[in-house]
Amino acid sequence: MSKIDKVERLLPAEIEKRSFEIIEEELKQNNIILPDDKKNVIKRVIHTSADYEYAKSLVFSDGAVEELLRLIKEGATIVTDTNMALSGINKDALAKFNMKAYCFMADDDVARQAKERGVTRAYVSMEKGAKLDGRVIFVVGNGPTALIRLYEMIEEGSYRPAFIIGVPVGFVNVEVSKELIMDTDVPYIVNVGRKGGSNIAAAIVNAFLYDAGGR
Q1: CATH architecture, range 56-211
Q2: How is the chain split into domains, by residue range?
Q3: Beta-bridge mates of residue 163
Q4: Active-site residue, selected from the candidate residues 20, 37, 38, 47
Q5: Alpha-carbon gap, residue 96 to 24, rounded angstroms
């Protein structure tokens, strides 16, 4: 068989379905059984990354699935730490729940404050998100300093997020920032270790939006 004969001829609408079938097959081959309430989220993250390690490294706080679904159905607000994560979240699904999503990283006031205070824009953008009305889901896929600032506000008692998705990627402060969030009483989903990213953060949000009925 030539290489071209190995190509699967699929309609565009069939590609995602086939991808998830492959994921299911390979999970079974590796004897990986996902919890029923988390499997759609984990499979979507694997679909986004082609990395099966997420089947073991994604950590959910007790009741996290139910709580995030409830927040979505109630129309909570989302704040991301990157415009990439924001752009990856399905806007049609957000609209079905009258949800708004923001990223403040490029705002002039955030950049100015970060420079004056000698901190990152991600750090300041979390403070700006904390000033929004209503319940806020913080979605962090890049900046560990965003998680560190959320942790500080929780510990100070100055602010309590409704939910934290913490999956920053990298080397400096990445692992400890996730561990800090896991030490709080705020509902969370984090990926332990160095892996993550804005695409992973968006995939997690989309998985919940779809499970809630947004697709």
Answers
A1: 3-Layer(aba) Sandwich (3.40)
A2: 56-211
A3: 137
A4: 47
A5: 29
Average pLDDT (66-94) is 97
pLDDT score at 12: 73
List phi, psi (to 5°) of 63.
75, 10
Strand partners of residue 121:
none
Q: What pLDDT does 17 receive? A: 86
Average pLDDT, the chain: 94
Tell me, what's the pLDDT at 29?
92
- pLDDT of 7 over the 70 cut: no
Looking at residue 208, its amino acid is F
pTM across the whole model: 0.93
Active site residue 47: yes
Question: Is a pLDDT exceeding 80 seen at residue 204?
Answer: yes
